[in-house]
Design brief:
single chain, 215 residues, alpha+beta, Metallo-beta-lactamase, Chain A, six-stranded mixed β-sheet, 13 strands, 27% strand
């Protein structure tokens, strides 16, 4: 079986983990959450010979989706995800930038395909199950590759923390419910990449993350 590889490009002042998932043999892959610095992303893709099949979005906050429209124009590929409940966020990226005083030119964006809980997305031989995990953002989704015990969790769960819920559309209890019902059941041995900072293993978070006590 060909190996799934992941490369992380920290982008924008938010140091968001723009992720390139790709096949080690064919070099086919996807870009997950291009929040900005599109020139850096495209340069990295070219330098590593990656053939990008699509752009995947976990959710519609500016640090994750701010560069999606420009990258779609550069690469000529579809934007897939998140769940349709994030349409107001994606249509308000320019307003988000103004509200946060972000010195970046962002463009509002509409994905080419929305995702629903239980769907699958894939590139090459690599298939990912989609789980709708609202709480940090209404339309947040995560991507789970069962074959290689790997998940991309966006801003749902971090190493030692969880996603913010004080932003528009956030809901703390809903986020905890998503983690309990959609993330923890993936299994303790599943390794994950998240939207900011280092990744980890779900079992370590179940045992040690102070925000998960009692789940």
């Amino acid at each position: 079986m060909s190996q799934l590889q992941a490369g992380i490009i920290p982008v924008t002042p938010f140091q968001q983990n723009c992720t390139i998932l790709f096949d080690s043999d064919t070099k086919e892959g996807v870009v997950v959450d291009p929040g900005g610095d599109v020139d850096v992303i495209t340069q990295t893709i070219a330098e590593n010979g990656i053939k990008i099949a699509a752009i995947w979005l976990t959710h519609g906050h500016l640090d994750h989706a701010g560069g999606a429209a420009d990258l779609r124009d550069e690469l000529g590929v579809d934007i897939i995800g998140p769940h349709k409940d994030d349409l107001p966020l994606l249509q308000g990226l320019e307003d988000q930038a103004n509200r946060f005083g972000v010195p970046m030119k962002l463009r509002n964006v509409t994905p080419d395909r929305w995702l629903e809980d239980g769907e699958t997305v894939s590139f090459g031989a690599h298939e990912f199950k989609v789980r709708h995990c609202p709480g940090h953002a209404p339309g947040h989704v995560i991507f789970f590759n069962e074959a290689q015990n790997f998940a991309h969790l966006g801003d749902v769960l971090f190493s030692g923390s969880i996603g913010r819920t004080d932003l528009p559309g956030g809901n703390h209890q809903q986020l905890l419910d998503s983690i309990r019902d959609k993330v923890l059941p993936l299994g303790d041995e599943v390794g994950f990449i998240c939207g900011h900072g280092p990744g980890g293993r779900i079992g370590d978070e179940r045992r040690n993350n102070p925000f998960l006590v009692g789940l």
